[in-house]
Structures
1.
Amino acid sequence: MRAAAALVCLLMPVACGAATEAPSVPGASSGPNAAGLVPLPCDGSMPLAPVKRRYCDRDRHFVRPEARDALKDAATRLAVDFPGLVVRFIDGSGPEGIVPFPPHLSHGDGRQLDLALYYTDTEGRPISGVPDTRKWGGYWPAEPPRPGERIACPQGRAGRAHKPDPPADRPWRLDEERTRAMVMVLIADPRVRRVLIEPHLEERFGLWGHPKLRFAGCQAARHDDHIHVDFY
């Protein structure tokens, strides 16, 4: 009898009150913190990653659980359509859930996240990641209006909202196909409330007037070097 009981405990430790520990799974979702926020994955286990590691190291990668689910779904879908593609995030919110989240005019409650755009070289070959320019890590380079395209702020932007155009001889160009595909996947998701983008890109992508695409205004930093996604 004792031998039989020992065999049961060996095969079914929970039945004998033994504690069990679930194996660690790379990229496994963690539960919400006290502010109701969760971290985005930083371990490279899926096609969703920070532009630079410092966004995770400095706790700037927190979002609502629903936002994280929507981003994971978008990243998975895009990786099927474009093998090897990674959705690269920039600033989300801090873990405390305080609004605004400096230096942003919003962010902080986990419902906003900035995403990097995609680029090619001058021959049209996709670039992996974001061109390593200056120190902003995903918030530059911009993709300025082409001649004849809509100029949202002809008088420019003041203060920290101002960003220069990239040099004409830059060795990269906007990857319009992949960037448009990312925007399309996001605005098709009912969990996404809106996407902030510059008007000339909205028009260039053939999406002018879409109810989920908005212009942030001339008081905000330009959104032709990244897009801002608002989630419900």
2.
Amino acid sequence: MRAFLRREIRFFVPALFAGLLLRLLFFFCCARVTDDSRFYADIAKNWLSHGIYGITNEGAIVPTLTRLPGYPAFLAFVFAIFGADHFKTVFVLQILADLGTCLLVADIARRSCAGEASRDRVTKAAFLLAALCPFLANYASVALTETFEILFTALALDSAIAGLDTLQSDNAASIRKFLLSGLATGVVILLRPDGGILLASLGLYVLVLLLRRGSSNQMRMSIARAGLIIAITALIPLAPWTLRNWHNLQRFQPLAPRYANEQDEQVPYGFNRWVRTWMAEYVSVEEIYWPIPGEEVDASRLPERAFDFAEQRQATLDILSAYNEDHSISPELDDRFAMLAAERVRAHPLRYYVGLPIIRVADMWLRPRTELLPPDVRWWEFNDDPQWSVLAVGFGIINLFYVLAALIGVFRFRSIRYAGLLIGFLLLRSAFLGTLENPEPRYTLECYPIVIVLAANGLLARP
């Protein structure tokens, strides 16, 4: 890849500069510090100033395990050098990291292209698609985990593929690549618990290689060693976090809790299950799911699929009316949600376990990725300012282009090396996302390096 970069310097420098300009545009116009960002920052500042990995609660610092330490550690590093809450530096470093992702995506595309004659143009196309991707550029100026998750996901996959490429020719080099892949996977997991899906994808691919016919015993031993190296190096970084939780909080918690709740915090499981019986799109996340508990909820915003018949509609409205009295979910109210959910699941199990998960995944993949931009969440109603409606439609078209181009790559998987690893990760992550009750489009961004690689190979590769 280095030799190719030097040879094609006249292409990569302008393309890199264009990618930088796009990211600077989002930096100056749309940089965001969200509520989650402030939560991460609070942990980072307490960790830095008091040596306590915790949150500020009524003036006291309370140890927490609701967020994994990857992103708070990055923020603490930045704050230690540039001062507390210096988010501009955070954004600049994330922009540089995102540009590094573009190079990794290009390298994955180059290694995965089976056709020698088309390898150069596939590499260039992948780099350009990554550099000019507005969705990656947007999140580079948001103080959330996405940029680094995407970077280290790309690094883990690129290193794993490089290790498999050199498995027979250079044993020492392949071991170094697998070590790097494992460490990068460990960083992904330390950023957010769903990073474990990457480790599962790598493990499943190694298992398939082991079971493949025609491999010699020596090759199988090398493949098994590769899987073991990746697994061990990915899980080792979790050890200090797990020991800390056990020692300080008397809780075995290798990751973060499913609902990011504190030890003594009530989780409204009944409410969450009820939401999964009708949730299908991101708009309901903003209008219903996020406001509960704590804010007034407009029951008229519920879609018709939230009710199966008139009596159930009235029961649902009664429960939400009771919630709106004090904006909290008591155990008794949560039981009412749970009974309503059980009734709906019994009546339509296929809808709950198959239909709605598929629709939620489709919404995450196909929705215009403007959740952090000014366009109204109900963009399809076109009741927004014209420029924001145009932006939403434009982002939707761009996203559709990336997805459709990647689908071409999926259908041409026989001409793409390591297609099983790449497509397997997409499928496994999508299946997991379907189980969530909050279909946020950002959860698919970790797949975008693979989307771009598949798109570049699908559009330009020739056997």
3.
Amino acid sequence: MRLRFVEVRADLGTMTTPRWRYGSGFLIGGRSLLTAAHVVRDAISVTVRGADKVILSAVHDQAMLGDPRRMDLALLEIPELTDLLPFIPVALVNRDTTTGDFINGCWAVGYPYYQEINRDSSMRWQRVSAHIQGYIPPLSSLGDELGLLSLHVNQVPAELAEPGQSPWSGMSGAAVFSGEMLLGVITEHTKRRGASEISLTPLDRLIDSRTAPDNASLWWKRLGVSDPGNLPLLPSTRKNRAEPAYHATMRVIKGRTKILRDREDELRRIKEFATGGMSKRYLMLIGGAWAGKTALLAEAVFAMPASVDVVAYFLSARESQASQEQFLAAVVPQLAWLLNIDTPPTANIHDFRDLWERASKKAAKDYRYLLLVVDGLDEDLRIGGHSVAALLPTEFVNRHARVLVSSRRYPELPGDVDSMHPLRKARVMQLLNSPNAIELKILAEQEINALLPVEFIETPGADLPFRVLGLLTAAAGALSVSDLTAMTEARAHAVRAFVTYYAARSLERIGPANNYRYQFAHQTLLELCQRHPDLGGDEHYREKLYEWAEHWRSREWPIQGLPSSCTPYYLLDSYPAALAGDPANPNLRPTSPRRLKDLVCDYRWLTATIECIGIDSARAAVRTAKELNPGDDDRLDNVQRIVESGLSHFPVSAVVTGDGRVVSGGLDGTIRLWDAGKPDDTGTVLGYHNGPTLTVAVTSDGRVVSGGHDGAVRLWDLAKLGDPGLVLGRHNSTVRTVAVTSDNRVVSGGLDGVVRLWDANVPDDRGYEVGRHSAVFALAVTSDDRVVSGGLDGAIKLWDPSVVGDPGREVGRHNAVRALASTSNDYVVSGGLDGTIRLWDADRPDDSGYLIAQYNLGPASLAVTDDGQILVTTGRAINRLSLARL
């Protein structure tokens, strides 16, 4: 990086006085130099020199020069550079910000006049670099016709003795960054503003219609930007950023508590603590089981003043969400989000401490406050004997960064909390039990006792309360009506009536309306049932839970298709913690280390969990399994190495390029390029989606098309590693499949049910709607560029995109279509969730299809080779079928 910062010297000719003009520049990527236009304007030659003292010539007569009166930017080529440099990421300044935030962490490197040195009188003067820091107030200099911004610097150079000479002279053209993002170049210094303020020309001059040149698209190309409309804005606002997944959980918890009553004084004191109004760094809320601690903290999270940034985690043993690993998986992404950086791939204790330190320092620097909220320390499962309390920060807890926790009255702090930990000296706020909560507690316990008859009743269905409550106790998590119906073997309407009516006080409903799940309404109710000899004391319910999980394991944890055919969410988000149990209290929460190890070592389960729940949840389960299964285990070690090392790519789609390399899309959101001839190749990242990348394809000219959870259809150039990618267009939901026609048009299908056609050469093309399904799972293209699609509705449809408004024709049908392929003679091969592989003649409307093969489950993918072989990926193997033998 240091060799990219160069001194620029422009020769104005012997007839000009002074002959030389000095400035600064930056090698932005390729062989391009970025500087200020006024530095190189009217020059007869331009040279640059960096830290290596090597002098290079710039091609100034073919430079792209902006008008210094409108856009003081210039791009020149340095042909003597031997290697092409990767491009630097670019951001735009948000002049429409509504937060009032400054762009902090700004810096630049240039060669100003005040950095001239002469250590030996016999040597000539030379300039060395200056590295400056500062911030940009985006709402300053409004009304400046040049659109300049102010950079306020921390280091102020001394005034020079020469009259009229600015100490910043020569700094013009220096690139200005915020973090790693390039914003613009330094342009001028107005002395009346003082030595601490210099002006810069932002790169957004290239998109402003009043200042942008006619060839702005060529400028962006030379800057390495293919889609300027998709550049990040600074200062970033939370509206423009994907928030951490745990924020949704925080809103759910807040929603459960409804209206907070009679807690105005406690809420006021918490706000006072969060904004530095108390001397103690830790505040602990102590109260009984029904004191309303969770309700108060959930309210506090969303009621803090605007100057307070909140990071939170709510331990919940009844949801099996109460371990160190789950705490880190929730909190580390929140800290990274506050810092506006990518979440670390590991999310371990070291990452937590590092991010906490950085967030604490940033809060102090920005005159803000950071509050870590941790509710329910008494519910900590302490897997492996390690507590969440022991992870809480001991350093960088000060007036601007504080910690708020809650616990019941009687449990002592865990033994692994250091004797000098500030938590042991926390200020305590006692909470009296809420009269409303006490009444609910009594009613809920009475309800459970009333539902469980003390004498034998032979009436059919009389034991349903035991079966439902027993399974919820064994699960220690939320189960749906269909989950409970499958395990109790009762009728769905009877289970639904029980959980929604008869046990309405004891159970609470969580989750979206199309997938309600039920769990105990309070931890004490779960504990009551755990101690009951015919609920928690009956191993039959745990065996039922294991048997049910084994059923889904045998089906390879499907996550695509009809809701009834998809793996229940409980088995992905809560089951691992239920298997971990509580080693310190196995009577209430039995532990099953071997089952947990077998679960996390099942790559199909890992893939389903990462796609549906997230990599952090899968990583937490793997770490817990390792903790409970000490010693060498090749399977477990390999899985842990994958999820901890950042190799959590987990390819879900792959395609071979024309030169034999492999491109894959993974659940970590990356698109990677692999050399098939190198077994140890770790892959080169081509680009990213915001969420899992679920499908990839390759055009005939070597570009890569990808689609993913973010609904975007993106295009990447294999010849330009580091290329930021081009957004072809978007669906309203997840893109599950893409394909490419012979003339490089892109076809995409999404869960919004739309099949779209895009022009790969038109960015942000609105796309042409080819047709619709209820949800599109698979696409194929015939040799004459007709489109074959299939989806959740089970129909296989054929479309001709060359015919506007083509209604399409149904070729065949499955119960739901999972995979499609086309042969060289335009036969269609399809695979359905019914497990069948069928062959259809695309040109025969009455073709009833030919059954090629039958499997227990539908194929994950289909491909037809040039020699007429059908490759069927079933999840556990790749099978080869020969068309010639049909």
4.
Amino acid sequence: MKNFILDIKKVKTFSLLLLAWLFVVGIYQTTKKMPQNTDYRGAEREISVESIRFLYDLTYKNAAGELISEQVIFDEIFSLIEGAKSYILIDAFLFNTYKRPRDKIYRNLAFELVECLAKKKEADPAVEIDFITDPINTVYGGAISKEIEKLTNMGVNLIVTDLKALPDSNPIYSTFWRTFIQWFGNSDSYGLIPHPFTGGEPKVTLRSYLEMLNFKANHRKVFMADQHENAVVIVTSGNPHDGSSAHSNVALKITGELWQDVYDAELAVAKLSGRELQGPPQVPDESKRVGLEDARIVFLTENQIKKELVARIGETTANDTVHMAIFYLADRRIIKELVEASARGVHIKIILDPNKDAFGFEKNGVPNRPVAKELLDRSSNKIEVRWYDTHGEQFHSKLTIITRGKETSLLIGSANLTRRNLDGYNLEANIAVTAWEGAPFNQAARDYFDKIWDNRDGKYYTVSYEAYKDETVLKRIVYLIQEYAGLSSF
């Protein structure tokens, strides 16, 4: 009996120590700083408005009911690669051919990108190519990526991001994963569980699923190359991914010295993964250039994106406008800023994805549907919301247009407006640019927003709030738990 009591005490002591350890791990991994030179805000640079182009892809139905996809973003990226003089830098989240039977595959973008890089390397073997991507494309080490193998074999400096240095967004699960699972690594052999993204690939290990549930990503979508006497950057919401090829997306193409900040930010990602970049590109000193510098532009990553957006919305006053075209809107601070701006007399219009389609699966409308109801309720219906009417694909854009007086600012890039994307848990990349409202790129962005809001030219892009509204209390509870606890993929 005495030994039994001692054993019970040992079990209790061990259990308390284990709980204390898990608590400490959870607090530390959730609150630790981002790795060095991530959470980055570049210098505010002045460049000509003629050096900036707004780009977009749209999938919609025409007056005859036919599904149409207009795409220019990756055509511009492929042109950028083809015209590179000596250096190419890519950081792309989804880069694979994985698809399910119900996926709408408009283009084989992963294959096209590999072929474009292969042709460039064949034509000019001396060109240096740095390619950073996310471990989701190898199912976290549990599968062989044909695309990654091809690029590595042709001499590309291929870096799969090591995500362990990033803070954890979902401490309930991540604490368990870091304590008990991460030490086992992974293997692309001996898989016993069906591939999570396609039915046509070999099975993967349980460890792949366990790491996938850690909900962590290098979510950036950045492309850069030197051309002529300068370097060009494209920052977008789009992925070179077959299953995403019909998605609607946005991008900015910038020619000029912004490339320096992009290179520095991407070098930090390479270093946290234990690697280096081959560049930078060799371009003339732009400080000696003479021209009309009438746009202010800054490159932002991680939490700096949120700080910039909060500040810019917070500066708005009566009769200013905020227009958003967003895949996910869930961040509590952003919602608060929008409601308060509306109360100040700011005119706010938001186009949201209805969150019903995800790579052949049907989603439950969280977070956008409960968030849309909250915005309407808290603003007394002053904030206007429409849904992009998707047909299996996603409205994947991440665009905010803020007009104050005679100036307009665009914020574009990879970041959804969620806690995971904006609070320094994922790696993200955005651009903020401000110029007079009639600048060509600003006018193009405003025309893009207005035409899909108004369904111009007999084309059907968006539907009213009532079409996808879901005002159930349960959905709001699910959204709030997932947003605060990090127990979600958004």
